[in-house]
Amino acid sequence: MTLASLYQSNECAVSFELFPPKTPEGVDLLCKNVERLMQFGPKYFTCTYGAGGSSRGTTLEVLKKVKEITRLPVASHLTCVGSTVEDLTGYLQQAKEQGVDYIVALRGDPPKGTDQFEKTEGGLKYANELVELIREKFGDLGIAVAGYPETHQEAVDFDTDLANLKRKVDAGADIVITQLFYDNSDFYRFRDACNAIGINVPIVPGVLPVTNFKQAQRIASMCKASIPDTLQSAMTENDDAQHQFRVGVDHAREQTIDLLKNGVPGIHYYVLNKSEAAAELLDGLQMADASS
């Protein structure tokens, strides 16, 4: 089944993002959480890797385990950071040989300690170039690219960022998965703007169920996502861990219900290798398109 075809029914396609654990114990825990998340009928799992490609090998090992457990398609993140075209091609070949079905194609963040992306000699500068490489050499791999409802932190403005996204889609991306956001109106504004300039692939919202306010602040500062005043007030009125967990999960659940009512083709959950928050927010929800 192709990546795009997963989003062609009235059922909202759920997917989950993982990251490679640093210890064998972490891998065991991840596998247990993946098994728990299977009750929600995900269509696929994705896995990131460390800065500069530091854990690419572990990413493939994790995806191999996840595929063995779930029998579902899996997707590997891939960035241009610190890699030549030869490096990227080698990784893609290895990923394909190990059963990876899809690639989340990203330019990648600047290395730690710098605030500007620098192209590696013999490498690629933009994500659309990575999409072109995958399409040219590994045409049967599905491709997802990133979209930014509140604008990428390095973009000059919203319109410029949107034009960059269109280049990625025109290069051959199957779907767009968005950066996390806490206010659904930001997503709807972004989706409408995509439609207006002819981005016609599925736009999949990315949702992170935050479980404490410090986590929300840290992640928001990294990706320039704004925290609504209502969420901030609710999380900070009590520093009890269970209170903050409940507030964060309830907010993500409300986001999910509203997104379903507004006809999203799927939702991609950033679960941080845990299952408790995602399980609570999804419990009892009917993921069929509520707008139909």
Automatic annotation (TrEMBL):
First-tier enzyme category under EC: oxidoreductase
Pathway as given in its UniProt record: One-carbon metabolism; tetrahydrofolate interconversion; Amino-acid biosynthesis; L-methionine biosynthesis via de novo pathway
Cofactor(s) for this UniProt protein: FAD
GO MF: methylenetetrahydrofolate reductase [NAD(P)H] activity
Keywords: Amino-acid biosynthesis, FAD, Flavoprotein, Methionine biosynthesis, NAD, Oxidoreductase
Reaction(s) this enzyme catalyzes, per UniProt: (6S)-5-methyl-5,6,7,8-tetrahydrofolate + NAD(+) = (6R)-5,10-methylene-5,6,7,8-tetrahydrofolate + NADH + H(+)
Keyword Flavoprotein tagged: yes
Enzyme Commission number(s) of this protein: 1.5.1.54
Similarity comment: family membership: Belongs to the methylenetetrahydrofolate reductase family.
Record-linked PANTHER family: METHYLENETETRAHYDROFOLATE REDUCTASE (PTHR45754), METHYLENETETRAHYDROFOLATE REDUCTASE (NADPH) (PTHR45754:SF3)
The protein's name: Methylenetetrahydrofolate reductase
UniProt lineage: Bacteria, Pseudomonadati, Planctomycetota, Planctomycetia, Pirellulales
